[in-house]
Amino acid sequence: MNACGLIVEYNPFHNGHYYHLEQSKQATNSDCMIAVMSGNFLQRGEPAITDKFHRARVAVQQGVDIVVELPFIYAVQNSDLFARGAVSILAALGVKSLCFGSESGQINDFINAYKLFQNKQERYKLELKKQLSYGISFPEASRQAYQAIGLTQGSIDLSQPNNILGFSYLKSIYQNNFSIRPMTIKRTKNNYHDKEIKNEIASATSIRKELVAYNKVTTLAKEALPSKMIEGLDEYKQYSGLWHHWEHYFNILQYRVLTMTEAELRQVHGVDEGLEYRLKRTASKATSFDSWMNDVKTKRYTWTRLQRMFAHILVNTKKESIVSLTEEKLPYIRLLAMTDKGQAYLNQIKKSMEIPIITGLKNGRHQISAIESQASYAYYSVVSPIQRRKLYKQELNPPYILNKRS
Amino acid sequence: MNACGLIVEYNPFHNGHYYHLEQSKQATNSDCMIAVMSGNFLQRGEPAITDKFHRARVAVQQGVDIVVELPFIYAVQNSDLFARGAVSILAALGVKSLCFGSESGQINDFINAYKLFQNKQERYKLELKKQLSYGISFPEASRQAYQAIGLTQGSIDLSQPNNILGFSYLKSIYQNNFSIRPMTIKRTKNNYHDKEIKNEIASATSIRKELVAYNKVTTLAKEALPSKMIEGLDEYKQYSGLWHHWEHYFNILQYRVLTMTEAELRQVHGVDEGLEYRLKRTASKATSFDSWMNDVKTKRYTWTRLQRMFAHILVNTKKESIVSLTEEKLPYIRLLAMTDKGQAYLNQIKKSMEIPIITGLKNGRHQISAIESQASYAYYSVVSPIQRRKLYKQELNPPYILNKRS
Question: Domain locations in chain B?
Fold first, then answer.
């Protein structure tokens, strides 16, 4: 079988994802679609609206053959680390191609940009450092540095979120000499951050806004979601009592920051450049997550970066562990859901794989499992005690298998 | 003025406390009654039913002249450390006597017991170590060790909770050569742990049980409480939405334990002898504080000791800080409430005092203030965000002053 890789969050799985899936299948001529999906916390530093098990299940119901988890230590990171984790997993799973959505839509633009970047990496790094020293945010500094080495002019726009991610995927493929062919599909209609649903191919952000604001699947949201996802959303809320978002975690986060010393906060991944003082100073006045974020925010930090920092405070991930773990080889790949076809593909490649596939989390296996477990408990901490216990048990259960032949 | 010291929790202030206060005043012939009161967390390792400010206010309304706070690092400790903190504060405030309630009621029995203990301290320590090695709880091991040196036979019963505390007060007075005269009043009628209110002089435990079970001041509870305390309880609940007890903190505690590594748990004061593994193992199954406690409990640990451990996990107090801070001299005494007479007394002794009196918590003053602040935030973490902010502000405000003359 010929496998194609996708790097996704499915938060939630919507028509745009379905469109991307079908396009990728055709463009790469693949008969097995493998998605590396962020777990309960996402790259933009947010808790996912429903847990990873429910999102993975809908993904295979919609046509993905295998869903594996991107570990927390890679998922809640800047684009380069996120890409490094996701691309290595796809490489280990033997995919022939990786197909990503981008604002550009032209893979040659990415390839040319990479060649240019490769030759001028040193200049880029120097320029980036200089820009950061002015106190501006990383994405803005990075954009300036790309511009300084001649990128963005007539090439891909590296200030667009999906172009940034795509470029990180390419860097990861080429720098590791993976035999994966990168391909890209133009993201259509709505932009990444659009907050209002405009049509049947809406962005995940706009759908989430709609769901959270009305606390139900509105008619407008229904137009953007496949029926299985609507069922999945309703079922999850009925079971857990809520769709997760940051405001649910405000109490715990505020409690944490106010019962930690500055020195303890500084040990948490993402708490850099004196943010520990800013956090303590603003915490006691905050009465909601949103108001707190607005108090912490300055032009130096993007909203996304601060959200990621809060996710690491919540999960209690230390700088020390993140650095050592992301430098090691992945100890395992966690399977979340698959179709029978996906299962056949895994059986086919199993023997030649260097990294074992696991089907359930076992404590004490590896420090990465311990962090996965912390992330999962932190995520479910806002659910009632009895449901929390049941939801956590999914971590220990075998993955969901959709039998298409029967 | 002639001052007498009391060591109390007032959780809540009830008729028994009033009786003890009046008896102490008469017995010691004092015209200024000074109470050292535990803050928001108590010696038995529980959150107080209402915050320290509300309890201190009622205490002065009922006849106490000065209420000062026993810092968290001394309050949530075994009887010896609890006594060391409380007695040094009373000594610094120049009290002539200390009057405590006990099951014995005979001060000479305590004094004789201390003399015997002083001569056989080494034997006591050896015996205690031996008994503890059998895996029994500290109070039981201590009772056996006292028996081995000849205490408890015809003397005070050192397995009774108030006798144990009283004996710790005496040790602290004599070992530090404080010129404080110890006195004791027999605790009448109800025993310390009785859980059912029996009459107008009921125990704090039985009153709390009653209040929490019915979530209101029942007719039975009313009989045991002065009217000012009833008002205080009602007012606090109206303002904060609740009377604090451990079940309110279950979510946060479980979240904490499940997002900490064993090594991190081991750094917390009270997490000893492999309790970190027991905590982690039992945490994921727990659905309430009570069920969790029952799962952690063995004959080696008393309920009280485990509750204290949970309080330190909640407040995030590390072994390291506790050890260094309790070895240092107290940096300040925190005033919570006073009458005009109390104020006059403080003005009289101020110049000769070695430790400054502070009237509000200021951040960054001392590591003890940082821990007080953590304890306070942890305590209010179960209140709604806006009320929490208002309640915490009391930490920064001047103390309540009751002007009796006007």
Answer: 3-103+186-190+331-402, 246-324
- The letter for the amino acid at B2 is N
For residues B109 and B183, give the distance between their C-alpha atoms in angstroms, rounded to a whole number.
11
Contacting residues for B386 by C-beta, under 8 A, at least 6 apart:
A287
Give the residue from chain A lying closest to B283, CA to CA: A389
**Global confidence as pTM:** 0.93
ipTM attached to this prediction: 0.92
Yes or no: say if A183 and A137 are a contact pair by the CB < 8 Å rule: no
Which tokens in the block code for residue B46? Answer: 């529980």
Written as tens digits, the pLDDT of chain A (406 aa) is 899 999 999 999 999 999 999 999 999 999 999 999 999 999 999 999 999 999 999 999 999 999 999 999 999 999 999 999 999 999 999 999 999 999 889 999 999 999 999 999 899 999 999 988 888 888 788 888 888 888 866 678 888 889 999 999 999 999 999 999 999 998 865 544 444 555 545 688 889 999 999 999 999 899 999 999 999 999 999 999 999 999 999 999 999 999 999 999 999 999 998 999 999 999 999 999 999 999 999 988 999 999 999 999 999 999 999 988 888 899 999 999 999 999 999 999 999 999 999 998 876 668 899 999 999 999 999 999 999 999 999 999 999 999 977 5
Indicate the CATH number of A3-103+186-190+331-402 among 3.90.220, 1.10.287, 3.40.50, 3.10.180: 3.40.50
Find chain B residues with C-beta within 8 A of A254's C-beta: 377, 381, 385
SS3 B153: coil
Instruction: Of B125, B62, B75, give the one whose Cα is nearest residue B371.
Output: B75
CA distance B28 to B118: 26
Number of helical (H) and strand (E) elements in chain A, helices listed first = 20, 8
Q: Which of residues 226-285 of A touch B (CB under 8 A)?
A: 250-252, 254-255, 258-261, 264, 284-285
**CA–CA dist B160, B155 (Å, integer):** 12
Chain B within 8 Å of A291 (Cβ-Cβ)?
no
Please, which residues bridge with residue A401 across strands? A338
Helix A385-393 with B250-258: angle, nearest 10 deg: 20
Question: Residue A297 is which amino acid?
Answer: K
Q: Are A313 and A275 in contact (CB under 8 A)?
A: no
